[in-house]
């Protein structure tokens, strides 16, 4: 019992610095935002208590719900795009080959590039006049398919989501790769000896043993989709006509452009609630489907 208590104390002391940092940079700002959300405040003048008025104003604003819709689109596109692509490259790299480290570095490179740089690169790809996309279409005689990709109500969010996929798939690739390397080689060898094909080994051995890893990537994908900001802000600033606006851009606009920090704080709390609700819904779905 004494040893167990000492071990528990040692673990607590070891975790204490990280816990203090987490409380300082995460919990305290959340609690402060929750407090400010009940006030009318421009950041300088006296705060005036307004109760739930900020939340009511936000929930009545159609632009906010457009942001919710776009965030849900980013969430779904991230789950069906980033996770399969990350798993695909993880499977390719989970083997012995010449230049393996170089391949891993190249595929992970978009993750470590600044979101601003990524946005500027893809703005050049989507450019109306000299963009790579339209030039390639013209090269193949598909002039009629040329678009203002980021300015189109039809293609704007899809274009942004492709950029978002390219920037982040490497993050999930690394997580899946770590999960794959924890699968016992003996299990794979036994499956090969039993005559299981590559597809059957993947479907009945690899995928079930990656269940916990998939759940981790799912949580990351959902939470990241609700906090995406800089990528879209640099590419489109939420335009045109709020077509690509997400909740974080709406929050930024209210707090810093309109100097309404109470309303902006209310939006930040709603973003947190939507994120938690989406994660809980994903948990129910995955539990139901085993």
From TrEMBL:
GO terms for biological process: transmembrane transport. Keywords: Cell membrane, Membrane, Transmembrane, Transmembrane helix, Transport. It is a multi-pass membrane protein. InterPro entries: ABC_transporter_permease, MetI-like, MetI-like_sf. Belongs to the binding-protein-dependent transport system permease family. It comes from Paenibacillus silvestris. Residues 68-282 form the ABC transmembrane type-1 domain. CDD domains: TM_PBP2 (cd06261). Signal peptide: none annotated. SUPFAM superfamilies: MetI-like. The chain crosses the membrane at residues 12-38, 72-93, 105-126, 155-180, 201-222, 261-282. PROSITE patterns: ABC_TM1 (PS50928). The keyword Transmembrane helix applies. One of its GO terms (cellular component) is plasma membrane. This is ABC transporter permease subunit. It is found in: Cell membrane. PANTHER family: ABC TRANSPORTER PERMEASE PROTEIN, INNER MEMBRANE ABC TRANSPORTER PERMEASE PROTEIN YCJO.
